[in-house]
From TrEMBL:
Residue numbers of the full-length protein present here: 234 to 545 of 545
Species this chain originates from: Haloactinomyces albus
Keyword Cytoplasm: yes
Protein name: Phosphoenolpyruvate-protein phosphotransferase
Domain PEP-utilising enzyme C-terminal: 14-281
Record-level GO cellular component terms: cytoplasm
Similarity comment: family membership: Belongs to the PEP-utilizing enzyme family.
EC number: 2.7.3.9
General function of this protein: General (non sugar-specific) component of the phosphoenolpyruvate-dependent sugar phosphotransferase system (sugar PTS). This major carbohydrate active-transport system catalyzes the phosphorylation of incoming sugar substrates concomitantly with their translocation across the cell membrane. Enzyme I transfers the phosphoryl group from phosphoenolpyruvate (PEP) to the phosphoryl carrier protein (HPr).
Domain of life: Bacteria
TM region positions: none
Active site: 244 (proton donor)
Positions annotated to bind phosphoenolpyruvate: 48, 84, 196-197, 207
């Protein structure tokens, strides 16, 4: 039944002039993976592995991890899946890794930062992902959360490649990473913008606080200007730039993101048919015009209005 909201979504994202844009799903469980298949997502742009372990008391061993990952990956045999290494800490404490006792957890030892002192946990997870990739036949990439510098990106890429994973990327969700994007793109095969955290850190506004939702609005021109920088750098290096934050699920904003140079969009599965259909309605040139209009706007409301006007 859910599929029928898909309008004319045919499982293959592109603009009206045939420029491909992969429309992917965010998943955190086997159930989510089934939902992504039903929505005809072209693959998975973000597998949040920490969601598998929110209630785990101890680190799951390699075999246990491999089994869970393989179950999520198998429905995507032959399709791209980006597996994110554990993003523990902040709003997602894991009792065996980042128990959540810091005064400022969003600014603390979270994401890839946890790995620097616990490198064995990362290496065991990478081994499990590599094994699950081989079992499933999915085209697996890995990426690290909360990368802040190019040297962190290079450090992660080296470990992931040593584990036998051929495609390695990082999330861009810390403003410093966006500002170092060219150096980061030297070190990795692709990047994926996490607009939820990037907005939080750009605006110094806790993403969990409803009272600050206006600052965390992904239509904020300052956020879009950073995304434009990343899109330009990706085009220059010929490397993919995804968006996997909630912003990608808004069909009008998805059009703007494509105009900013984003090459894939990953979202909650239920949004896949709507966004996939929405992208097919206008051309790449239209999206570039819409993006210019959004970048020039003084605030989110006027950015939305300007984009609606630009696309008429
Ligand atoms: C993000 O920050 O936008 C993101 C996709 O990661 P998460 O929501 O899991 O922090
Ligand atoms: Mg994030």
């Amino acid at each position: 039944a859910e599929r029928d909201i898909g309008l004319d979504w045919n499982g293959s994202g592109s603009t009206a002039d045939g420029h491909p844009v992969a429309v992917l799903a965010n998943v955190g469980s086997v159930t989510d993976a089934q939902g992504a298949v039903e929505a005809e997502a072209q693959g998975v742009g973000l597998f949040r592995t920490e969601f598998c372990y929110l209630v785990a008391a101890d680190e799951p061993d390699v075999g246990t991890q491999r089994d869970v990952y393989a179950e999520v990956l198998t429905p995507f045999a032959g399709k791209p899946v980006v597996v994110r290494t554990l993003d523990a800490g902040a709003d997602k404490p894991l009792s065996f890794l980042a128990p959540g006792t810091e005064p400022n957890p969003a600014l603390g030892v979270r994401g890839v930062r946890v790995s620097f002192d616990r490198v064995g946990v990362l290496d065991r997870q990478l081994a499990a992902i590599a094994a699950a990739a081989a079992d499933s036949g999915a085209e697996v990439s890995v990426m690290a959360p909360m990368i802040s510098t190019a040297s962190e990106a290079a450090w992660f890429a080296e470990r992931a490649r040593a584990a036998g994973i051929p495609r390695v990327g990082v999330m861009v969700e810390v403003p410093a990473a966006a500002l170092s994007i060219r150096d980061i793109l030297e070190a990795v095969d692709f990047v994926s913008i996490g607009t939820n955290d990037l907005a939080q850190y750009v605006f110094a506004a806790d993403r969990m606080l409803g009272t600050l939702a206006g600052l965390n609005d992904p239509w904020q021109p300052a956020l879009l200007r950073l995304i434009a920088m990343i899109g330009r750098a990706g085009a220059e290096f010929g490397k993919p730039v995804g968006v996997c934050g909630e912003a990608a699920a808004d069909p009008w904003l998805a059009r703007v993101l494509v105009g900013l140079g984003v090459t894939s969009l990953s979202m909650v599965a239920t949004a896949v048919p709507t966004v996939g259909s929405a992208l097919a309605e206008y051309s790449s040139a239209d999206y570039r015009r819409a993006a210019e209009a959004a970048l020039a706007a003084p605030d989110p409301t006027r950015a939305r209005e300007a984009v609606h006007a630009a696309l008429g």
